[in-house]
Design a protein that fits this description.
Length: 280
């Protein structure tokens, strides 16, 4: 392989459910929002900021999303900044879709040097207060949470880790939240997040299995409200702007993890706004 090969970063879940036309935004606000006054780094949440950061650092960035139209604005922004980007459709509920997406990625740009698993879901948010107990949660909601939080990263890891192991280098970075730290009751308006504990466990297992082969695996606990069009418009974000996390700075943390010297790798990183107490 040529040493001049452009490095490849794949962001699984490059778009945000809180972007201007995202599912959470429409659920919370009942409409699509105008994001023209927002910084470009915040318009697509964490995934979009990570994609822009790696593109700025010279990576060919692959944006995966269930529907290509969701990422068209992000792709245009990256190219306007002088970066290289392409969109590949990927549905984490479908094993066939995952396999097809990564076959396309390998054929078009090669094996990824960095994989950022940033997939999210909103299932559970529309359950009313009287449906908070497990006995009321439809099995379909649990299955979607399992697909995205557990089965999805397992299948994605199987697609990218063999080449990283053979090359003796690569980063597999997981974007997670505070619900991965311990089991917690789902509250009204929250997604069914406790399956994310399994996502964190998978990161720990992959660290034990692949670190010795030169693959850097890390679980990143994003412990707070991330700036985006939909979250910025929430009453609590407007009343307490100091609790809102800057996705550009979160993206810098992901890039830092990828560039760490292998003599001192970080395998779990928790990011919390200064004004709030860290979750545990």
């Amino acid at each position: 392989m040529s040493s001049t090969r452009q490095p490849v970063a794949v962001v699984v879940g490059a778009t945000s459910k809180w972007q201007a036309d995202g599912r959470n935004t429409r659920l919370a606000h009942g409409k699509v929002l105008d994001d023209r006054d927002l910084p470009v780094g915040a318009r697509w949440g964490v995934g979009g900021a990570i994609a822009q950061k790696f593109a700025q650092e010279g990576f060919a960035v692959v944006l995966t999303t269930r529907h290509a139209a969701n990422a068209e604005g992000l792709e245009q922004a990256i190219r306007a900044q002088g970066g290289t980007s392409r969109i590949v459709e990927l549905d984490l509920v479908s094993h066939a879709s995952i396999s097809k997406a990564f076959a396309t990625i390998r054929e078009s740009v090669g094996d990824p040097d960095v994989l950022v698993y940033n997939a999210g879901y909103l299932e559970g948010r529309d359950l009313p207060p009287e449906k908070e107990l497990l006995e009321h949660v439809p099995v379909e909601i649990f299955e979607t949470a399992q697909h995205v939080a557990s089965r999805g990263p397992f299948l994605v890891a199987k697609e990218v880790l063999p080449a990283m192991r053979q090359r003796g280098a690569g980063s597999f970075l997981i974007s997670n939240n505070s619900s991965s730290l311990r089991g917690r009751k789902r509250l009204t308006g929250q997604s069914l997040y406790y399956p994310r504990v399994m996502m964190r466990t998978l990161a720990q297992v992959l660290t034990e299995e692949y670190s010795e082969h030169g693959v850097h695996v890390a679980n990143v606990v994003i412990d707070g409200l991330i700036d985006s069009p939909g979250t910025r418009a929430l009453p609590r974000a407007q009343k307490q702007p100091e609790i809102v996390m800057n996705p550009v700075k979160i993206a810098e943390a992901f890039y830092y993890l990828h560039t760490q010297d292998r003599s001192c790798w970080t395998h779990e990183l928790q990011l919390t706004p200064f004004s709030t107490k860290p979750s545990f």
